[in-house]
């Protein structure tokens, strides 16, 4: 879950509520779903929240939400923007893998240390979330005064910069945190930030690059140049975002612009001119995209979802308190009704959604906003008046009754992990992988295991029980253990390619354990299920020759029973005989 | 008078005039000493015998003591060897080298120190800077310690031996002392009278046997008393695994609330695990760090129509005003098989009709099944754990119905005062984290995650009704209700049998 670090003084400043104590703020934020996690080393308050409201990744966004909560602000607010003076040219050489760009010019910023830190935090957190670690979208913030508008583009009547792709070993620039001229390829090898993000552009033929009249100044999504570095002295900023999806970077851009606007800066549009033959080729966009989207939601849906009756004017009020605007849609019962304040099933609201609300995908996300503004804890729980018949699955009933019989026979019921290792199921049981015996099957392998102890799904369960014996040699004997549990094998004829089933497995570890003890219990189990047990001799490498039998139930060979081989016992540090059995649960009933 | 056989024998062996020790009574009565002792006390309780107790001290030679009887005490051997080497009384003229004497006395190891210490103590001579002189007046042959030791080994009485000498033997670990209580019995007047009037043997039996029952003999016998307070041998029956008990309990509650159990694959396509749940394919939780991908080929078959609808939901959203994710989506990615990270994959299979055909409302379904998370393994997290998954489908459901269902469910486990914290899940809206108070500690803890399935989930599945759903780790509930602190004691091959055997049953 995302976290945001907040300076409480800044929050008081930005909300205009000097009277709020830190504790008041914590309580108010909990109401918004931001949980206090503790203080950072720098004395900031750290909050954790769900990854939907990414507009709250900085103190400015959190302050905005609080002002709505306090009732200081209502409805949608969109910052004014000035006409564009700058053009971002996207030329035909731009890397195919990363064709999109957006941005804005921000003037009149007043960055003290706290504001600059907040801006950098917001940038990093947007990278980590929406930007998918910069793969999907990366933000570059530059000091505008260090950029010289490119005059090479003759038909541009203003300033421009160019987003393009260049040979990785071509032009050089001095990246941040460096004092050497490096090519993009050298950045990826020699600069620590370059190495961190090298994977993102590893497959690109051309390095993404941004030029002004003076030359290369940024290598997105890896690193900016030192020439345009932002400091507390910066008064005008150029913001550019590159990425794999126009929508995503436009939303990230909007969140940044809203944050700067909240600090009194003026936003100036830029023109994005897509040249060349990419999907976007030939288009010109005006950015930042502050378009207020609209979605319709019915009064009925809100009432049904919350389970309460509401008046239309209350619903509109709740929308406005959420930072949205709502009007009763034309063609419905209309203004009269909105004024009278009733809402009926036919009423529909047109709801305006500000551009920073990246989480609203569907009208029901607006219903959630109404619910939060109404206060979910105001709702009285009620048990749904709906009658259904409960019941267990056959397989689960069969498992339960089998466990019941086994515990009645004195077995301790066990619950082992389904993941284990080849060493445990094959080597230590003296079973050759691929051998045509129970447990010899080809196990399904986990491609990125947590540890070498858990690399496969177990093809049989006896090794798990022998491991439990191994780990409990200091405990009282006899140890009679059983498990009715999951096993799996690779099987390409199955839809999921994994044949899953349950096995019934038991071991008897006692000073006088013999084949007969295991068979006696197996017999009792089969008698309980009314199935016929036969035990023709067989050979299995985990068992003593001449003391192992195939478990044949109702004519089908489904497992093995016998005395475990001394070599296997010694391998597991066991100093007394063990008899055991394992067979398919499906032999006892419908799985 | 009728008495049990051992008592009759003891009574007959006892004397009215002489105190007879119990071991002698046992020998005369041909009883085991324990049986004789028990009979003596029973007779005392009946007033027929008087019991006198005498504390006695017994000495027994140790193994070390026994060896010195043959070879002589180390200091004696040292004295003799010194004399044999020509040592005299004068420390200047008659002294001999200690090393030489020790060799001649055949002493080694600890015996050397013992010999030297006692040599000096008994005044056999002097030791001065490695030289040894002897007192010719000393008489090791008349050493009371050696004599007493010899008497002990020969099992002769040592009543006349000075206690100080015996104590010395004990402190030298040549003899062990045992304090004993010797009990003797004398017939009381009542005992004498009883014997004169005649005492008969009453038959007592230890065990009730089938023969006694069938012959009717049980009517004439007396049953020997058992010590009913004594500990009995430990018996270990089979028990149901404590976590399984918790799962069964949850199952009982849910079945009672009208829920049907679901079943389905542990290894499943990402399509069922994530894509149906409207989890974007570039969601951080879908990276390889969180999931257990398998090395098997992709799933063979997915319902083509459903795949199209799910893809469309991801790309375009659902409904006139729906937006998609602006994230890449590929069927190939969706077909990859992994271990399920939640059993919501089962809910998707059931809701889509793939599992048991199309479902009409109202319906309630649940499962208590294993899920797999590539997370840290520690005292509260496992790589595999049980998830309780449940959902309700009906014509109209509100968040109040969802809240009411959970209040009812958790109340069954003694968890009341449920709080609902608004939350975010990609697949539900609204969503709530559930918090409840621990029944004993009163602590507020997270006990589940819930919500109303989104249209983007239900619409592709072809479900035209409201569905509310929730998930919860069974282990968390079990730890709450059993007080377990390390989950690894419960689950897996590190399980401690002693813990499982001793776990209190729950109901």
Automatic annotation (TrEMBL), chain A:
<feature type="binding site">
    <location>
        <position position="365"/>
    </location>
    <ligand>
        <name>Mg(2+)</name>
    </ligand>
</feature>
<keyword id="KW-0460">Magnesium</keyword>
<keyword id="KW-0479">Metal-binding</keyword>
<keyword id="KW-0547">Nucleotide-binding</keyword>
<dbReference type="InterPro" id="IPR004531">
    <property type="entry name" value="Phe-tRNA-synth_IIc_bsu_arc_euk"/>
</dbReference>
<feature type="binding site">
    <location>
        <position position="368"/>
    </location>
    <ligand>
        <name>Mg(2+)</name>
    </ligand>
</feature>
<dbReference type="Pfam" id="PF17759">
    <property type="entry name" value="tRNA_synthFbeta"/>
</dbReference>
<dbReference type="InterPro" id="IPR045864">
    <property type="entry name" value="aa-tRNA-synth_II/BPL/LPL"/>
</dbReference>
<dbReference type="GO" id="GO:0003723">
    <property type="term" value="F:RNA binding"/>
</dbReference>
<dbReference type="InterPro" id="IPR005147">
    <property type="entry name" value="tRNA_synthase_B5-dom"/>
</dbReference>
<dbReference type="InterPro" id="IPR005146">
    <property type="entry name" value="B3/B4_tRNA-bd"/>
</dbReference>
<feature type="region of interest" description="Disordered">
    <location>
        <begin position="1"/>
        <end position="20"/>
    </location>
</feature>
<feature type="compositionally biased region" description="Acidic residues">
    <location>
        <begin position="332"/>
        <end position="347"/>
    </location>
</feature>
<dbReference type="GO" id="GO:0009328">
    <property type="term" value="C:phenylalanine-tRNA ligase complex"/>
</dbReference>
<feature type="binding site">
    <location>
        <position position="359"/>
    </location>
    <ligand>
        <name>Mg(2+)</name>
    </ligand>
</feature>
<dbReference type="InterPro" id="IPR041616">
    <property type="entry name" value="PheRS_beta_core"/>
</dbReference>
<dbReference type="InterPro" id="IPR022918">
    <property type="entry name" value="Phe_tRNA_ligase_beta2_arc"/>
</dbReference>
<dbReference type="GO" id="GO:0000287">
    <property type="term" value="F:magnesium ion binding"/>
</dbReference>
<feature type="domain" description="B5">
    <location>
        <begin position="290"/>
        <end position="381"/>
    </location>
</feature>
<dbReference type="InterPro" id="IPR020825">
    <property type="entry name" value="Phe-tRNA_synthase-like_B3/B4"/>
</dbReference>
<feature type="binding site">
    <location>
        <position position="369"/>
    </location>
    <ligand>
        <name>Mg(2+)</name>
    </ligand>
</feature>
<dbReference type="Pfam" id="PF03484">
    <property type="entry name" value="B5"/>
</dbReference>
From TrEMBL, chain B:
<keyword id="KW-0547">Nucleotide-binding</keyword>
<dbReference type="InterPro" id="IPR045864">
    <property type="entry name" value="aa-tRNA-synth_II/BPL/LPL"/>
</dbReference>
<keyword id="KW-0963">Cytoplasm</keyword>
<dbReference type="Pfam" id="PF01409">
    <property type="entry name" value="tRNA-synt_2d"/>
</dbReference>
<dbReference type="InterPro" id="IPR002319">
    <property type="entry name" value="Phenylalanyl-tRNA_Synthase"/>
</dbReference>
<dbReference type="GO" id="GO:0005737">
    <property type="term" value="C:cytoplasm"/>
</dbReference>
<dbReference type="InterPro" id="IPR006195">
    <property type="entry name" value="aa-tRNA-synth_II"/>
</dbReference>
<feature type="binding site">
    <location>
        <position position="429"/>
    </location>
    <ligand>
        <name>Mg(2+)</name>
    </ligand>
</feature>
<keyword id="KW-0030">Aminoacyl-tRNA synthetase</keyword>
<dbReference type="InterPro" id="IPR036390">
    <property type="entry name" value="WH_DNA-bd_sf"/>
</dbReference>
<keyword id="KW-0067">ATP-binding</keyword>
<dbReference type="GO" id="GO:0005524">
    <property type="term" value="F:ATP binding"/>
</dbReference>
<dbReference type="InterPro" id="IPR036388">
    <property type="entry name" value="WH-like_DNA-bd_sf"/>
</dbReference>
<comment type="similarity">
    <text>Belongs to the class-II aminoacyl-tRNA synthetase family. Phe-tRNA synthetase alpha subunit type 2 subfamily.</text>
</comment>
<keyword id="KW-0460">Magnesium</keyword>
<feature type="binding site">
    <location>
        <position position="427"/>
    </location>
    <ligand>
        <name>L-phenylalanine</name>
    </ligand>
</feature>
<comment type="subunit">
    <text>Tetramer of two alpha and two beta subunits.</text>
</comment>
<keyword id="KW-0479">Metal-binding</keyword>
<feature type="binding site">
    <location>
        <begin position="387"/>
        <end position="389"/>
    </location>
    <ligand>
        <name>L-phenylalanine</name>
    </ligand>
</feature>
<dbReference type="GO" id="GO:0000049">
    <property type="term" value="F:tRNA binding"/>
</dbReference>
<feature type="binding site">
    <location>
        <position position="344"/>
    </location>
    <ligand>
        <name>L-phenylalanine</name>
    </ligand>
</feature>
<dbReference type="GO" id="GO:0004826">
    <property type="term" value="F:phenylalanine-tRNA ligase activity"/>
</dbReference>
